[in-house]
Specification:
Shape: globular
Mean pLDDT: 94
Order of helices and strands: HHEHHEHEHEEEEHEEHEHHHEEHEEEH
CATH class of the largest domain: Alpha Beta
Strand order of the largest sheet: 2-10-9-8-7-3-6
Number of strands: 15
Bound molecules: ligand PGU
Number of domains: 2
Number of helices: 13
CATH architecture of the largest domain: 3-Layer(aba) Sandwich
Low-confidence stretches: none
CATH topology of the largest domain: Aspartate Aminotransferase, domain 2
Length: 405
């Protein structure tokens, strides 16, 4: 018999979103005629716009011609796409050979675990996107703080709540090898200011830690003063890896396309290059994003695609505002939604899963319980603004009619 991986046993529940789906299916079995609205998983709903669609169609058609056919692509991804990411999204503050095109940010989070291995200590925001913790646990990073040795063999949770404006108190935070940080944040919808991100970069520098900055929602930032990339902060190139994604930027959750950035200056303690190892991991564990998706990505970022992309982002942001205003009018404590597709709503007196069940039964709306993102999320519900406008408006009516709680 084969022994089960002991680290997988330590995961104390199923992955959050399948768990939400399980409860949704159970409700539908009992109530087959229910007209459920899903504001749960952050999954895009709007069809692609014409130029975006055409780019994908053409890429597929070209594969059917002798001149247009292509097989495995270049290891780091299509050079034209990398050039476009560098110029359109980073104003050439990163170079195309520091960009690694991927099949999405979640997949890169998993591969980063292989890069750093199970001997590393990590810090995450609490609450945070569950993939950081779950992939770390699977690699064996579950130890407790060792008072005598003064170090962690495991995971440090940095509380982020309304009291600290969702930015951790770095003065009391211990050193870890890696720090996962997400802004605009999933799940709270909070964005970190330039000053806060400067403090974060300085903290990583002082501790000689590596920052893994998840910028999957960067394009949702509305205020030019708020950094869209960690590389807007001086010194970040020496301490940070950044992850990006086309999923929420251009409705590519199903197409699958993302990227990671590992700057030349990022080094291990022995002076060797992190980028060289990342290249080794990526070329060993991954054979590149689909060539169709990559050509599609070029179409998203070119002169015709870019306005379509912004139109899509603005559409979802309008949804977020509609939902936010509803909760504000009803007197709820609600965060996010201004530079993010997520709303973080406090349900006083209710635990997150109870609020989830209440909304499922009384409003037939699927949400995501805040506690699924970490202990500090208890009492909150995350609402996703990804939905057709008619669905969002219907959800508003239902929230109002049940008075929420
Ligand atoms: N990073 C963050 C912060 C995310 O919120 C998500 C998706 C990803 C990465 C994954 O991006 P891909 O490029 O599509 O791989 N978060 C969604 C989907 C749930 C999931 O598990 O991926 C959410 O609802 O939180």
């Amino acid at each position: 018999m084969v022994k089960r991986n002991p680290h997988i046993i330590k995961l104390n529940a199923g992955y959050l979103f399948p768990e939400v789906n399980k409860r949704k299916r159970a409700y539908l079995e009992k109530n087959p005629n229910a007209k459920l609205i899903s504001l749960g998983i952050g999954d895009t709903t709007e069809p692609l716009y014409p130029h975006m669609t055409q780019s994908l169609v053409k890429a597929a058609q070209d594969l059917g011609t002798a001149q247009g056919y292509s097989g495995y692509g270049s290891e780091q991804g299509n050079l034209l796409l990398r050039n476009q990411i560098a110029s359109k999204l980073y104003q050439n503050t990163v170079s195309s050979d520091e960009i690694f095109v991927s099949d999405g940010a979640k997949c890169d989070i998993g591969r980063l675990q292989i890069l750093f291995g199970s001997h590393t200590t990590i810090a995450v925001q609490n609450p945070s996107y569950p993939a950081y913790v779950d992939t770390s646990v699977i690699l064996g990073q579950t130890g407790e703080y060792n008072l005598e040795q003064g170090n962690y063999r495991g995971i440090v949770y940095l509380p982020c709540d309304p009291k600290n404006n969702f930015f951790p108190d770095l003065s009391s935070a211990p050193r870890t090898d890696l720090i996962y940080f997400c802004s605009p944040n999933n799940p709270t919808g909070a964005v970190s200011t330039r000053e806060q991100l400067t403090a974060l970069v300085n903290f990583a520098k002082k501790n000689r830690s590596i920052l893994i900055f998840d910028a999957a929602y960067a394009v949702y930032i509305q205020d030019p003063e708020i950094p869209k990339s960690i590389y807007e902060i001086p010194g970040a190139r020496e301490v940070a890896i950044e992850l990006g994604s086309f999923s929420k930027m251009s409705g590519y959750t199903g197409v699958r396309l993302g990227w990671s950035i590992v700057p030349e200056e990022l080094k291990y303690e022995d002076g060797s290059s992190v980028k060289t190892d990342w290249s080794r991991i990526v070329s060993t564990f991954f054979n590149g994003a689909s060539n169709i998706a990559q050509i599609g990505g070029i179409g998203v970022l070119d002169d015709q695609g870019h306005p379509e992309m912004m139109k899509m982002v603005n559409f979802y942001l309008e949804n977020a505002q509609i939902l936010k205003n509803t909760f504000l009018e009803m007197g709820y404590e609600v965060y996010g939604g201004d530079h993010s597709p997520y709303l973080w709503v406090k349900f006083p007196g209710l635990k997150s899963w109870d609020a989830f069940e209440y909304l499922l039964e009384h409003a037939e709306i699927v949400t995501t319980p805040g506690s699924g993102f970490g202990a500090e999320g208890e009492g909150f519900i995350r609402l996703s603004a990804y939905g057709h406008r008619s669905t969002i408006l219907e959800a508003v009516q239902r929230f109002k009619s049940v008075g929420v709680h």
